[in-house]
Design brief:
By secondary structure, the chain is an alpha+beta fold. It has 3 helices and 13 strands. Strands 1, 3, 6, 7 and 10 form a 5-stranded antiparallel sheet that branches. Strands 2-13-11-5 form a 4-stranded mixed sheet, with no helix packed on it. Strands 8-9-4-12 form a 4-stranded antiparallel sheet, with no helix packed on it. Strand 8 and strand 9 form a beta hairpin. The longest helix has 19 residues. The N terminus is likely disordered.
Amino acid sequence: MTKKTLFPTTTINTIHYRVINSIKNQFGFFFPLLIIFFHLLITTGVYANGIDTSEIKILKNLEQRNVDPLTKLEIYAEFEPDITTVNGLTTLLVFGRLTSGFHIYSIYPQGEFAPTPTKITLNSSRLKTASKLKESPTIQITDDAYNQSLRVHKNDFQLEQKFTVSKELKKGTYWIEAKLLFQICDSVICSLPLEKNFRVKLTIK
């Protein structure tokens, strides 16, 4: 069966040619610069705010989850790469989203009377720690609950840590159990130290 089109290809090409020529005649010398401008606009649009395609995927995953009303926090986690080999290296990425008005604290200790630092622990001997925990940029605030100047995360944040796969692990797909340890506060009060359990899929080939 012959597929029908609204306009024949030759007609479409003619229209394109006439439109381009019309624009070229109107802008003259500036036409090549105009083409470059629109090319950059289209190809770099998703990077305008520092958001690449992987971050867009993460944001969509977070948007599909409801923020936990108790902890005021929702997380999405994945390994990158999520398919590796025995003794291979992989990075655990944890993306978090906080209810507006709440914050959690930096992964670094901030003094004797400061809140509990945020950290990740794995409930598994299948992976061995290969790097220190890292965090996305924090902001400095005056925390009324602690009456101190402290570094915190608000809204969206990211944590990451590298791991190596145990030599004893066999090929297959595993769910790695982990938990996020944190303390959440608003401008008045803080929670006790909390735990949020999660699991992440990892395939060994």
